[in-house]
Design a protein that fits this description.
This protein is 39% helix and 18% strand. By secondary structure, it is an alpha/beta fold. The mean pLDDT is 89.
């Protein structure tokens, strides 16, 4: 799964759909529509040209979700071979017109709202608050006429400078989604063009509207179920949680913008000249190529020889997501420090392992997660559940594309249900880790301090390829040198790296130059 990023410099506005993205009111709308249509279809006289089966989730997604209530009534009934007159705005609730049935649906929704209240999605609120702190303008979008009440009940109305909903659409005569008029009205009120704005949507009609409106980024949100329907409607990317959305920070840039380290060596050399380098390196995808079977990943003979030469010139450490014993057995280079399980286990050359005590508290939850995921993902061809001491990885590199979401969703669900665990995405893998503030960046700093190499006379250098390596790249951004090893699997994501290497061989050449230059005066 590739993380999706919003760049506050490029993206000056973000438009959030309300029902299903900000609040859990989509389920109340769905229940209100089902109550309306099931009774209407059951009471309507039989007609061989009409389909009177009950209203389904697919009906909601394809014909109703994201649309105005009038369009929803007409589109759904048309799909069942039923055509009703539009009627008038003041038609009574339940009258056999589009307006009449729409009014009755509204009554059902308001009754459910009074009974159940509004549940807010914490991931959406966290993203909105982060965007506001970065100066990004926000708008709340909804086809519903009850949007203002929902936002007030949810306690989040203050987050949005603009609200464009069914009331505004009726007053201005705006067509509903998938026409982009509602969204474009929001950008007009925010004073930001669509070409510099992002839309976050969970409905097919909303995604199609954003795509038609020429928005810079159309982000689909599939909290449950596969992402295919939103991708097919035009989403640039689909996430299962807004926790997966990354905000670009000053100092970050996209992979396509990161200069090649060998080509820009003259400029980079000044960052290390006169200071002794401390080389800290990821393993899979950095020192050794990714394999379909993780057990088959190995250092090549030239790479091991190059590491041996580097160790003679400066300190070298390998920081991996693998177990400590696993990564040490694969590196097999004397004098190398190693950190396993994303830094939860550490050991110096010839030393016994040191494990983070806080991580050990999560071992029972990892055991339980392993049992559940092994059983649940066993039937998924190509899925591999890989238990490490302080992590549980579910690999989907060999899984059919249509089954990938099943793997990712299962890991996320188990992670949410078991306390003390967090989800970490990677290259064709999603992992469960102890939910504490510890990662490769903190492990890197711990190693520097433990070895007495954290002073100004040393320069930390980190090289990695994966999302989890960004913690370490961020750690060395201000006082060291970060290198990202490129991979097509990461698309054009954001990174903290100063330079790039197009594979292991160019990386080793670059590291050799760093080791030599760092001792020059």
């Amino acid at each position: 799964m590739v993380a999706t990023s919003i760049d506050p410099i490029r993206h000056r506005a973000v438009l959030f759909d309300v029902d299903g993205v900000l609040t859990d009111t989509a389920r109340l709308h769905a229940a209100a529509w089902k109550r309306l249509f099931d009774r209407y279809l059951a009471e309507r006289p039989a007609n061989p040209a009409e389909d009177h089966r009950p209203f389904t989730d697919d009906d909601y997604q394809h014909h109703v979700d994201g649309k105005s209530r009038i369009d929803g009534v007409l589109d759904f009934l048309r799909s069942r071979g039923i055509r009703l007159p539009l009627g008038e705005v003041d038609d009574e609730a339940g009258q056999e017109t589009a307006h009449g049935l729409g009014e009755l649906k509204d009554e059902h929704f308001l009754a459910a709202l009074d009974e159940h209240g509004v549940e807010v999605f914490p991931d959406a609120v966290a993203l909105a608050e982060s965007l506001r702190r970065r100066g990004v303008s926000l708008a709340a979008i909804s086809a519903s006429r009850n949007c203002a009440r929902v936002l007030e009940l949810a306690g989040i109305a203050h987050l949005f400078g603009v609200r464009v909903d069914g009331v505004v659409a009726d007053r201005l005569g705006l067509p509903g989604k998938p026409n982009p008029a509602l969204l474009l009205q929001a950008t007009q009120r925010l004073g930001v063009p669509a070409s510099r704005s992002v839309v976050v949507e969970d409905a097919e009609a909303g995604v199609a509207a954003a795509r038609a409106g020429g928005f810079a980024l159309v982000l689909g949100l599939a909290r449950a179920g596969p992402p295919d329907r939103l991708l097919a409607s035009g989403a640039n990317a689909v996430v299962s949680s807004l926790d997966e959305v990354v905000l670009a920070s000053p100092g970050q840039r996209r992979l396509s913008e990161v200069p090649d380290g060998l080509e820009r060596w003259t400029d980079l050399a000044e960052r290390v000249r006169g200071r002794r380098p401390v080389l800290m390196l990821d393993f899979d995808g950095t020192l050794a190529p990714i394999q379909a079977d993780p057990a088959k990943v190995a250092l090549s003979v030239p790479t091991r020889s190059a590491l041996q030469e580097l160790v003679r010139r400066c300190p070298v450490a390998v920081i991996s997501g693998r177990d400590l014993s696993d990564v040490r057995s694969r590196v097999r280079v004397d004098g190398v420090w190693c950190a396993g399980s994303h830094g939860f286990e550490l050991a110096g050359p010839g030393d016994g392992p040191v494990a983070l005590e806080a991580g050990e508290a999560a071992l029972p939850e990892l055991d339980a997660a392993e049992q559940r995921l092994t059983a649940e993902l066993g039937p998924v061809a190509g899925a591999l559940v890989d238990r490490k001491r302080f992590a549980l990885a579910a690999h989907y590199r060999n899984v059919r594309p249509e089954e990938v979401d099943r793997v990712v969703s299962a890991v996320r669900r188990v992670g949410a249900e078991l306390p003390g665990l967090r989800v970490a995405p990677g290259r064709k893998v999603v992992e469960l880790l102890p939910d504490i503030d510890w990662h490769k960046g903190r492990a890197l700093r711990w190693l520097l301090e433990r070895t007495g190499l954290a002073g100004a006379e040393h320069v930390p250098v980190f090289a990695g390829d994966d999302h989890t390596d960004e913690y370490a790249l961020r750690e060395v951004h201000d006082d060291g040198l970060g290198i990202v090893v490129l991979s097509a699997e990461h698309g054009d994501r954001l990174t903290w790296a100063h330079c790039s290497a197009d594979g292991t061989r160019p990386l080793l050449e670059l590291l050799a130059r760093i080791a030599a230059t760092g001792t020059e005066r």
